[in-house]
Design a protein that fits this description.
CATH superfamily of the largest domain in chain A: P-loop containing nucleotide triphosphate hydrolases
Organism (chain B): Ignisphaera aggregans
Number of strands of chain B: 0
Strand content of chain A: 15-25%
Shape of chain A: globular
Protein name (chain B): DUF4129 domain-containing protein
CATH topology of the largest domain in chain A: Rossmann fold
Oligomer: heterodimer
Number of helices of chain A: 14
Strand content of chain B: under 5%
Structural class of chain B: mainly alpha
Keywords (chain B): Membrane, Transmembrane, Transmembrane helix
């Protein structure tokens, strides 16, 4: 088993060479989501390298990359694709949408209309699209990295809970430290050039191989019970209106396996579960509105749950 | 740590001693006051002394010269004393060093209180060494007064007082060829020598400094008890540690040996949990139920001897491999690690 291949390359090329500064956690989470065949919702204010992170990852992994800027007038066909009449050929030909790629960056997903959002999310879930009655499978690996701005309130269509659940993780990315910011300012041009000139270090086949390897990571019975206890506890929590679903439990195990794999292990330990619990669960937990006003956030609820659920013993 | 405790002990003892002494004084003397006598400094006022000026000094000089207590030369030098200017006073001084000092002082311009004080000290030193005649002293003080008056120096009245004292010195010097060095206060209280005309100098005796009596509030008994307890604890921490160490060592070994019975059914897993018990005992940090093995390792390592921490780290990682990675070979690592940990624990305890 080739352990840590992808993440090793990412760390070496992007973190150690300071192409992306202070983004190791985000990169590791996105890599783990990719290896778990999940999609990522990136939440962060504009200008915190959300696009750069996705683009650099795609280039390094030798995968195709496309970007869609969501707007309220965007149609599902603009993403999925459509048939156009070709006069030379004398018939209709398919014009594939940007969804036919390996890594799709959907910028400001909450700006698209609910119709377009649901078309995209269906494609994400099924990993296939239907155009004019014809089914098209999307090429593996396929990962959607959708971004949204947490402070925008006007002109947006917030994702419904059911659709949020389709995202394997929500990565909250923020500002760098002062030291990191100084580094970015010092080498802004070099960073841009470095991302443009990135060469693939891992092939698509290797990525697929690693996805297969992650599936074989062992999860001991007591760890599964631990995950179940965490998920159930989110439902019982007094501050919670809607807790995590069984899909959330599956996502937690998947991510814990990928996290263990990127740590160089072929077995999951409780620490892996704890490490990914917040990115996996926070967007699936809804806090009671009256408590939300008092400052209780899903992050705090999950942290509280983790601090109370006992880890497997002996 | 030991030094800190020692310092704390000294400070506490010093505080206790100071407070006790003050408290006793305050309590003991409160009753000894004459009724109506002010017990606090706020209610006390200094007695006022009568105002003196240079004309008093001049009158005294005239009386001395009339009674032939002054030689003709000295009387000539001190003639028209109150109206002497700075230059005139300086010119009449015999001691060249003193003259230079006064001229230097005048050259400085505005006279500060420090300058006056320094000059008066200088006069004292000259007087003590016998290099200053009473007449020179009077003239020097007159010159200084002229300078001080010009700059409205607050020391002016003190200089005049000093001049009067110097005049007393002159009177005694004329009557007694071997004068003893006496303070101005003593002179003012002295009875003039029989047979000599007495000077009618104004009374310039400085008031005796009153003994300040601070009325401290009585210290509550509880405060004294707390201070005593703190002192005892500090003393026990300093001295008792040496004697307590063997006792604690024995207790710790007993606790390590007497781990609660575990019936896990797997000797390897049991060894890990016994190791947890040992490091908990050594470090005094318990593993919380929601804490992962690595979280506990990170927490406890900060408090362990590096060698013990290294052994426990190896045990923890081996436990994870054995428990979650299903690798039986890691069991041997846990068992050998447990034995090493036990040895280290016994030695370090």
């Amino acid at each position: 088993m080739m352990v840590m291949g992808i993440f090793d390359a990412i760390k070496r090329e992007l973190i150690d060479k300071e192409v992306l500064i202070e983004k190791e956690r985000e990169l590791r989470l996105i890599t783990s989501a990719l290896l778990s065949r999940g999609h990522v919702l990136m939440e962060g204010v504009p200008g915190v390298a959300k696009t750069y992170t996705s683009k650099a990852l795609a280039k390094l992994l030798g995968l195709s990359f496309k970007r869609v800027q969501m707007t309220p007038d965007l149609l599902p066909s603009d993403i999925i694709g459509y048939y156009v009449y070709d006069q030379r050929a004398g018939g209709f030909v398919l014009r594939k949408g940007p969804i036919f790629t390996n890594i799709l960056l959907v910028d400001e997903i909450n700006r698209a209309s609910p119709r377009t959002q649901s078309a995209l999310l269906e494609a994400m879930q099924e990993r296939q699209v239907t155009i004019e009655g014809e089914l098209y499978k999307l090429e593996e690996p396929f990962i959607v990295i959708a971004t949204q701005n947490p402070i925008e309130m006007e002109g947006v269509f917030p994702l419904p809970e059911a659709q949020l659940d389709r995202f394997l993780i929500k990565v909250v990315t923020g500002y760098t430290t002062t030291k990191g910011l100084v580094k970015i300012m010092r080498s802004a041009d070099e960073i841009e050039e470095a991302i443009e000139s990135l060469k693939p270090s891992v092939t698509r086949e290797e990525v697929l191989e690693e996805i297969k390897n992650v599936k074989s990571v062992k999860v001991e019975e007591s760890v599964l019970s631990y995950v179940a206890s965490i998920v159930e506890e989110t439902r019982k929590h007094t501050a919670v209106k809607l807790g995590a679903s069984p899909r959330a439990a599956i996502a937690l195990v998947k991510m814990a396996k990928a996290w263990a794999y990127t740590s160089g292990r072929d077995y999951v330990i409780p620490d892996d579960v704890k490490a990914v619990a917040i990115p996996v669960l926070t967007h699936r937990v809804i806090v009671k509105p009256e408590l939300e006003l008092q400052g209780v956030t899903p992050d705090k609820v999950v942290e509280d749950v983790l601090s109370r659920v006992p880890v497997p013993k002996p | 740590m030991k030094n800190v405790v020692l310092l704390a002990l000294i400070l506490v003892l010093a505080l206790v001693a100071t407070l006790s002494t003050t408290a006793i004084n305050a309590l003991g003397e409160a009753d000894r006051h004459t009724p109506g006598f002010p017990q606090s400094v706020e209610g006390f006022q200094l007695p006022t002394s009568p105002p003196v000026n240079l004309s008093d000094v001049e009158n005294a000089i005239l009386e001395l010269s009339k009674s032939s207590a002054l030689s003709r030369g000295d009387a000539e030098k001190l003639k028209d004393f109150s109206n002497l200017s700075f230059q005139e006073a300086v010119e009449r001084i015999d001691n060249p060093e003193l003259r230079d000092s006064l001229l230097n002082l005048a050259g400085k311009g505005a006279l500060s209180p420090e300058d006056v004080e320094a000059f008066l000290n200088y006069l004292n030193s000259l007087k003590t060494s016998g290099a200053l005649s009473p007449v020179d002293e009077l003239l020097a003080l007159r010159a200084l007064e002229a300078l001080a008056s010009a700059t409205q120096n607050p020391y002016t009245s003190e200089i005049v007082l000093r001049t009067l004292s110097a005049l007393k010195g002159l009177e005694v010097a004329q009557s007694n060829p071997l004068p003893a060095l006496k303070s101005p206060q003593q002179f003012s209280a002295e009875i003039p020598a029989p047979g000599l005309p007495s000077l009618h100098l104004p009374f310039v005796a400085l008031p005796a400094i009153p003994q300040l009596r601070l009325s401290l509030p009585p210290i509550p008994l509880t405060t004294l008890i707390i201070i005593a307890i703190c002192g005892s604890v500090a003393l026990a921490a300093l001295l008792g540690r040496k004697y307590a160490r063997p006792i604690f060592k024995r207790l710790k070994i007993h606790r390590i040996g007497g781990a609660p019975a575990m019936h896990i059914g797997d000797s390897v897993l049991e060894a890990y949990w016994r190791s947890v018990h040992i490091v908990s005992t050594i470090s005094g940090m318990q593993k919380a139920d929601s804490e992962t093995h690595r979280e506990f390792l990170a927490k406890v390592c900060e408090r362990l001897d590096p060698r013990v921490a290294e052994v426990f780290k190896d045990i923890t990682l081996a436990y994870e491999v054995y428990r979650y990675g299903f690798r039986a070979e890691a069991g041997q690592r846990i068992l050998s690690g447990f034995r090493r940990l036990l040895e280290h624990a016994m030695v370090s305890a």
